[in-house]
Amino acid sequence: MLIPHDTRIALDTVVDLLNTAPESEPPGSGQPEGEPIDGLADIAALYDFAQRHRISGVGELHEKDLRAVQDVRTRFAAIFATDDAQIAAPLVNALIAAAGTTPQLSDHDGYDWHVHYFAPGASIADHLAADCGMALAFIVVAGEQERLRRCEAPDCRHAFVDLSRNRSRRYCSSRTCGNRLHVAAYRARRKEAAG
Questions:
Q1: Which InterPro entries match (predicted)?
Q2: Could you tell me if 130 and 117 are in contact, meaning their C-beta atoms sit under 8 angstroms apart?
């Protein structure tokens, strides 16, 4: 599947945003057992997220911006939760419409020409909803929704986009979750064989 560069960046942003949600934190990630941490719990975390993803035009952020981005995150989670385009399409449409999309070409900050879908002066939440919502729309239109996944490790809920050729990726990271489960399965087989 050929995904344009801008769409890939937007999908990475969606995944990172989803993985800030408290329910996506795997055990051992630093939080006390039973107390998931929201990776977007305050304005400082939102500024950090915006900087990490080079979100342009972010001015001064306030509590209303934080709540709005948390709401967008919840709406993205609903889209990831279904592989049915009949359910996802209205969710994506509502998200994009609420953001007041205004497609325009831009070449800023050393990036070549690309399309921004958010209106000039849009809030960070509308920016994310418009640009990332359009990336999710691309996935739905391409019939590739099954690529929007959650890690299959029983103790991990991280989101990821499966870009493998045959759509066979099962874990958010083969180096952590995948390797950990393969090692556990190997040890279980050896223990069973030893009797």
A1: ABATE, ABATE_dom_sf, Znf_CGNR
A2: yes
